[in-house]
Amino acid sequence: MDDDTARSRLDAATADLDPPLAVLDLDALDANAADLERRAGGRPIRVASKSVRSRPVLRRVLARPGFAGVLAYTLPEALWLAGGDDPVSTDVVVGYPTADRTALRTLAADPELAARVTLMVDSPEQLDLVDAVTAPGARPELRICLDLDASLRAAGGRVHVGVRRSPVHTPEQAAALARTVSGRPGFRLVGLMAYEAQVAGVQNSPPGRPLRGLAVRGMQAVSVRELTGRRGAAVTAVREVADLEFVNGGGTGSLETTTADASVTELAAGSGLYSPTLFDGYRAFRGSPAVLFALPVTRRPAPGTVTVAGGGWIASGPAGADRLPTPVHPAGLTMVGTEGAGEVQTPLRGAAADRLRVGDRVWVRHAKAGEVAEHVAVLHTLAGDRLTGAFDTYRGEGRSFG
Ligand SMILES: Cc1ncc(COP(=O)(O)O)c(C=O)c1O
């Protein structure tokens, strides 16, 4: 679809609404979900809720055959998704360790929630914190998943490629922690997770940077080989200690390579559903942007420049230009280096600016997936050329989980 057609379609569908507003293109979402399923090669995908942050979207995706369970990002969120009469899922793994005492108390007081929610652990310290909040003898067994570090280490540990998360790196360390968990009352070891961020979350064909792409692909090939051996050995060692229900790995950018690892029983992915700009530069796939937001033109400071209201919807991660939102319709608008994406307004430059009038809108893509949902109460749903309704975001339901 060319720029004018895409822009007219979005403008016409949302003509009765005032920006700022965000739309979710359901056709693009469904196509992205189908592509993730194809790339997963038959392994179930646990949906990474941080990259979605909308219960109706999670429900829609989980209704598909290729998706099962949620990888949540906080324990309070997991309790919300797994609880009540109509849970989003009865299988929610919290992807990161928690130190939320109130939420732990709630979990430990409710056997149904305790059967539905799994906690992430990479050290006995986290088990101690749980025990300090709720005595092991006075609670249902809590489900535990071990987080195995999937980073690539070289030169005796001096080179580290990947994220800084779990200290558990070797199969021996994983087995030792598995024995610790299994030996402590009130816990049941049910899963192992090893997320290879340096493969799943680093673009290996970034637009306009062929040499960087080449270097990243080389690093990723080495990392996949190393991790396949180490993850397999860790799973074997941990399975000697406990009957694992699942071994989770991967993310949007690594589904092909993670599913090829025989030790993995399920994958994780979320970002690919919305397909934000940080996922444009991968060799193996190209998603369809499913979430766009509109900002209104409010003034015209000079020829070739317009100012839109808002705009500072910055993505997390290492600060840099790739974390800024990207104006896409009309094509050819860029931010001004001295101002970037502003707190309450954002100047945009380019030839298209002179064709815009006050009250027109500029359509923008976010750099990351779920964070866009923190700025709006609903995602207006678009099917074909028409708005079909609106999906609440977490924020729209009065929830924010940090
Ligand atoms: C533990 C874990 N698994 C999987 C993912 C992949 O999520 P996404 O597909 O949204 O990139 C992430 C993202 O950071 C993660 O932290």
Report on the structure:
By secondary structure, the protein is an alpha/beta fold. The protein has 2 domains: 3-23 and 287-397, Lyase, Ornithine Decarboxylase, Chain A, domain 1 (Beta Barrel); 26-272, Alanine racemase (TIM Barrel), CATH 3.20.20. The chain is built from 12 helices and 19 strands. The strands form 3 sheets. Strands 1, 12, 13, 14, 15, 16, 17, 18 and 19 form a 9-stranded mixed β-sheet that branches. Strand 12 and strand 13 (305-309) form a beta hairpin.
In CATH, the architecture of the largest domain is: Alpha-Beta Barrel
Overall shape: globular
Helix content: 25-40%
CATH superfamily placement of the largest domain: Alanine racemase
* CATH fold-level topology of the largest domain: TIM Barrel
Amino-to-carboxy terminus distance = 36 Å
Would you identify the regions where 5 or more consecutive residues have pLDDT less than 50?
Answer: none
